[in-house]
Amino acid sequence: MADIESARTTFGKFDVNGDGFVTADEFRSAMAEMGDPFVTGPVAEAVIAAKDSNDDGLLSFDEFWASLNK
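-> structure tokens emitted (70 positions)
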């Protein structure tokens, strides 16, 4: 099981605008800032879609946390 406080910190790095959701663009940008400039828009969309349990196109913390604990 993941540590929830570490997960919140990590999620915060992706949730750039602090609205509680990570968009594909936020994910792509955060990955580039962390040194992975090869995450393209379509790749970021696929990553978000794989973890987006309610199909709203956004990754919430609850969805992120659930994906860490599978």
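Helices lie at 4-14, 24-33, 41-51, 61-68.
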